[in-house]
Amino acid sequence: MIETADRRRAAELLGRFEAAGAQPVETAILQPAGTLLDLYGEDIRARAFVTTDPLAGEAMLRPDFTVPVVQAHMANGAAPARYCYAGEVFRRQETDEGRPREYLQVGFEIFDGGDPAAADAEVFDLLRAALAEWSPVAATGDLGLLIAAVEGLTTSERRRTALRRHIWRPVRFRRLMERFAGRAEVRAERAALIAQLDDAAAETLIAGAGPLVGLRGEGEIAARLTALREDREVPPISAAEAEVIDTLLSLDTMLADALAPIRDLAADLPALGPAADRLEARAEALSRRGHDPATLPFAPAHGRTAMEYYDGFVFTLSAPGRPDLPALATGGRYDALTAALGGGRAVPAVGGVIRPGLLGEPG
């Protein structure tokens, strides 16, 4: 049950975003499941309420606003625009820990590639100002640095693709890095299977294994086996490049203090250079809006587990002294999402959302 006070606060925040030049938009509560499944795979089912319509097929109760807002924007020509919205979102909870399954989101989005650093700073500044009475604790990151580092690794495209896919899954990402860098022993079962492929074709091994179990067909299984054999021949990721990834994952400092170390890392992995330039431009844009980079916490990997469509700047604004609560506000850049939903056309985009139900009375 959403409280009347929360709806009133959501309306106030929406008015604030309209005053900042955003056009209010609405999206359907029931969203086609296909788009979300294409973007996030079956993982989204664990977090969304899914139903089936006899005519329209699978649908989900709206898990957030960003995807439908991006879809609508890209369908309408993708010109520069600012949007705001307010309404319910729905999330399944695996355990009953008092977490709401229905709550309000109020958001602000910018679609404009004219000055991405300035747009990042504008969204952060607007949400932080909207929450000023609650004295939020800010934290920032930049997943674009980690993505750039992965794309610059001297290894096979298959390995880079696997790492990119799991950037938002820290445990799986770490295991892949350990294996690709030669720092982890190959499991005995995997080694034995690959050894068999030296003497027999994948199709032969599949035929001898008995009836197929599961959803994968024989062709898909054969392709996977062939990929395992080919991957064995790929040299390990160098120690220097693996160290760059390790440093990015562990770096946790103030934004002003992060720039020099990241520039140093770019000497070992030049692909980091353009991402470092974007970070520096953003720090300058934040400074122009009164946010001192010397006092703004920064960790490149901040937000990896909770912000899976963000691919650049990310931030959270949290309640002081309440680490048990979700963030009051989250936001970031999602350029790749616009390309995925725009049929290849991409528009630089950044936005953020506030959860009015977490605010309570100002401190």
Automatic annotation (TrEMBL):
<dbReference type="InterPro" id="IPR045864">
    <property type="entry name" value="aa-tRNA-synth_II/BPL/LPL"/>
</dbReference>
<protein>
    <recommendedName>
        <fullName>Histidine--tRNA ligase</fullName>
    </recommendedName>
</protein>
<dbReference type="Pfam" id="PF13393">
    <property type="entry name" value="tRNA-synt_His"/>
</dbReference>
<feature type="binding site">
    <location>
        <begin position="64"/>
        <end position="66"/>
    </location>
    <ligand>
        <name>L-histidine</name>
    </ligand>
</feature>
<dbReference type="GO" id="GO:0005737">
    <property type="term" value="C:cytoplasm"/>
</dbReference>
<dbReference type="InterPro" id="IPR006195">
    <property type="entry name" value="aa-tRNA-synth_II"/>
</dbReference>
<feature type="domain" description="Aminoacyl-transfer RNA synthetases class-II family profile">
    <location>
        <begin position="1"/>
        <end position="280"/>
    </location>
</feature>
<dbReference type="InterPro" id="IPR041715">
    <property type="entry name" value="HisRS-like_core"/>
</dbReference>
<feature type="binding site">
    <location>
        <begin position="309"/>
        <end position="310"/>
    </location>
    <ligand>
        <name>L-histidine</name>
    </ligand>
</feature>
<keyword id="KW-0328">Glycosyltransferase</keyword>
<dbReference type="GO" id="GO:0004821">
    <property type="term" value="F:histidine-tRNA ligase activity"/>
</dbReference>
<feature type="binding site">
    <location>
        <position position="105"/>
    </location>
    <ligand>
        <name>L-histidine</name>
    </ligand>
</feature>
<dbReference type="GO" id="GO:0016757">
    <property type="term" value="F:glycosyltransferase activity"/>
</dbReference>
<comment type="subunit">
    <text>Homodimer.</text>
</comment>
<feature type="binding site">
    <location>
        <position position="91"/>
    </location>
    <ligand>
        <name>L-histidine</name>
    </ligand>
</feature>
<dbReference type="InterPro" id="IPR004516">
    <property type="entry name" value="HisRS/HisZ"/>
</dbReference>
<feature type="binding site">
    <location>
        <position position="304"/>
    </location>
    <ligand>
        <name>L-histidine</name>
    </ligand>
</feature>
<keyword id="KW-0808">Transferase</keyword>
<feature type="binding site">
    <location>
        <position position="109"/>
    </location>
    <ligand>
        <name>L-histidine</name>
    </ligand>
</feature>
<dbReference type="GO" id="GO:0006427">
    <property type="term" value="P:histidyl-tRNA aminoacylation"/>
</dbReference>
